[in-house]
Design goal:
alpha/beta
Length: 353
């Protein structure tokens, strides 16, 4: 009885249709077909892949967007999925552009070893954290816009209104919500008071929404990484971002160095001639890098160990940006230990480690 041939799949993901392709282990194109982005379509796609032989691995573009649900479905059915980056423009110009071409290119990238990344599973509590953070981020942005609108209206308001609210601080923004503007809407002063009242109510509602999101996020973060929030300088926002960056399966990161590289906190060599130095990494996950930056800023202000380190390195002649790079690298190492200890069930290190 002959053994089934071994095949590699490639998928180019889109909103309504996923284009799938199959190649054998020496790179020959076998077949390609499109499937709808529905539960039935995912089932048909998997059966179609199996009909061509033993599926070794599937390369997929867009595992974090259009292909998120398909990636979860394949993972549930014990199919190894590899995340494939889009080809650069030079390669696209040389090979052409179509859905079948992109699907075959995804499979070929896995076969050639150019694509090796393990996608996030997106099927656990971290995915819930990501969803709640989307809502929180939009609420924070809307609240900031509301504050700016209130201040702008006060500046241009009639003198009587402006003088009454000139000293209004950010913490007192809710005060106009309790005001009584009057009934003459044709009067500029009345209209401004009414606008400020409504904006103040919006600010209050958004603040309550943010507080509720923070409470929910704190519960989820504590469940997935118990010691993370206990680290100096780490709050709900930064912890949530770093947890999302690592994903539900942080074991996909080979080491703490790979996590630092993902967060753009790994040193980049910038040596030339007699100069031996490193520079800041401007790649990676910029939101994770921002979270590390925020943690470092808080520690530089409130953490005695960090202040002593900054003073010592400054005396050694290190520039501020290089000190930041070193501190981000340390924080990334510290955070990674807590993320992986939560995943494996082992006790995490103490905050002072």
């Amino acid at each position: 009885m002959s053994q089934p041939i071994e095949v590699i799949g490639g998928i180019d993901t889109h909103t309504d249709l996923h284009q799938a392709a199959v190649i054998d282990t020496i790179g020959r194109h076998l077949a390609t077909e499109a499937f709808p982005t529905t539960p039935t379509g995912y089932r048909d796609l998997l059966e179609w892949l199996h009909s061509h032989g033993q599926v070794l691995v599937v390369g997929m573009e867009g595992t974090g967007s259009f292909g998120a649900e398909l990636s979860r479905y394949l993972h549930t059915n014990q199919i190894t999925v590899i995340e494939v980056d889009r080809p650069d423009r030079r390669a696209r110009r040389a090979a052409g552009k179509s859905d079948p071409i992109d699907a075959y290119a995804a499979a070929t990238a896995v076969l050639a070893g150019r694509a090796t990344g393990t996608p996030k599973h997106r099927d656990g509590a971290v995915e819930a954290i990501r969803g709640l953070r989307v809502v929180r981020a939009s609420a924070v942005k809307a609240r900031t816009q509301t504050i700016n609108q209130i201040k702008s209206l006060i500046i241009t308001a009639p003198a009587a209104v402006r003088e009454a609210l000139r000293s209004l601080t950010t913490t007192e923004v809710r005060r106009p919500a309790a005001s009584r503007p009057g009934t003459d809407l044709a009067a500029p002063a009345t209209a401004v008071k009414l606008a400020l009242k409504r904006l103040a109510k919006r600010y209050r509602h958004l603040s309550e929404e943010i507080a509720e999101a923070d409470a929910d996020l704190r519960v989820l973060i504590t469940r997935t990484a118990p010691g993370l929030l206990a680290l100096p300088g780490v709050g709900t926002e930064t912890a949530g971002q770093l947890r999302v960056t690592a994903g539900d399966n942080p074991d996909r990161l080979a080491s703490e160095a790979s996590f630092a590289h993902l967060c753009a906190a790994s040193p980049v060599p910038a040596s030339s001639g007699r100069t031996d130095r490193h520079r800041l990494n401007r790649g990676g996950d910029r939101q994770a890098n921002r979270a590390l930056h925020t943690i470092v800023l808080v520690r530089m202000r409130h953490d005695p160990r960090t202040r002593d380190y900054v003073a010592r390195r400054t005396l050694e002649g290190l520039k501020t940006k290089d000190i930041f790079r070193c501190l981000k690298r340390f924080v990334a190492r510290e955070v990674y230990r807590h993320l992986t200890s939560a995943f494996t069930g082992a006790p995490g290190p103490s905050p002072a480690a």
